[in-house]
Amino acid sequence: IDLDGGTIRSVVKGSKALVFPLHPVIAEVAKRMPRDGYWFPARGGREGHILSASVSDQIHDAKRRAGIQDPKLTAH
To answer: Which residues does residue 18 pair with via DSSP β-bridges, in sequence order?
Structure first.
């Protein structure tokens, strides 16, 4: 995240780096987050970041609890 430039860089499939405009809400959150390391660290004492499958599972469970049945609404 480049707070001064107002952009966020993401590495996507094929190791391709893309740069997007940084939403002001995310910029405010970023100011309170660690400059180094993971914003979403692994749980259970594991090294690294939380697994994407874990995030997807959490969102799926939240959808189910909320009674949302639209199959087009996914974590992706």
So the answer is: 10
How far is residue 49's CA from residue 27's CA, in Å, rounded to a whole number?
A: 21
How far apart, in whole angstroms, are the C-alpha atoms of residue 66 and residue 64?
5
Phi then psi for residue 25, to 5 deg, are: -65, -40
User: Which pTM does this prediction carry?
Assistant: 0.56
Nearest to 21 by CA among 9, 33, 35, 36: 9
Q: How far apart are the first and last CA of the chain?
A: 21
Q: How many CB atoms lie within 10 A of CB 60?
A: 13
- For position 61, what pLDDT does the model report? 93
Q: Which of 10-19, 37-46, 59-68 is predicted with the least confidence, judged by mean pLDDT? A: 37-46
